[in-house]
User: Fold Ribonucleoside-diphosphate reductase from Mytilus galloprovincialis.
Amino acid sequence: MFDKITSRIQKLCYGLNSDFVDPAAITLKVINGLYPGVTTVELDNLAAETAATMTTKHPDYAQLAARIAISNLHKETKKVFSEVSDDLYKWINPKTGKHSPMISKETHEIIIKNADKLNSAMIYDRDFSYNYFGFKTLERSYLLKIDQKVAERPQHMLMRVAVGIHENDIEAAIETYNLLSEKWFTHASPTLFNAGTCRPQLSSCFLLTMHSDSIEGIYDTLKQCALISKSAGGIGLNVHNIRATGSYIAGTNGISNGLLPMLRVYNNTARYVDKEAIRDQVPLLYTLNHGMQISLISWTARRTLERKSRGQETCSMPCGYQICL
Assistant:
């Protein structure tokens, strides 16, 4: 077992500094984690994690960790892009028994129609250009999963994005794929998440104004923010028209509690939507004309940022206020 693991790691050490990168040292630590019934996938995961922890000894260990993890993904996923797309489109949710496509019908039809061209354009060795942190980020959030198991390789994702953007213009899609794959540029997260899927929301940022200073206006805006967050959009919301603490409320003959309680509601909604979303949402709420109210929010922020459970996700501090000046 020792020789087999070492040999696998050694094959992935090409181009790395052999004076510092020691496959046997990784194997020794992996062997210590063995248990009856351990799978090769688990061994690869352990080897990659072990190599990543040794990055402090030499940066080449980070590259080796990425290679092990990516090689492991390649073993566990299909190679042919059109076949992967077919699986993503035809997926049946085992909990409901219903067709639950991960990509849109239009995207699937384009890929199948142009399968030969798209399949031959894929260059899977480019997956190995990612470092460990970058790959694990892709694996965790960006690569599409079937029944909680990653089904896409990074190159599959990039081609899906390219086809989702250009649709039937296959030459443009392949050109975009190559530019993305060679890292000449990248698209923002919503595009990478959603292009080619059944929810093709590709915009990164949405700037909103509170609908009105009323229960209806505040909660209509809250719903809009939640729907944007669901599809990974960023939010900038001005609250200029929300009355400050102590203001009179004619409709109820009451007194307003000001911005702070409302901001807590927005923050808690953002945290709740995060449980379903594919990336953390950090909405920015800003105001121009609340004077002492800003001082109150700033004082509260300084206290609550020390404790994770009290609003650190929503930036409602002078940072937003100063942006508006």
About this structure: Residues 205-323 form one domain. The chain has three domains: 2-74, 77-128+152-194, 205-323. Residues 48 and 69 are 6 Å apart (CA to CA). Strands lie at 145-146, 149-150, 205-209, 234-238, 248-249, 254-255, 284-286.
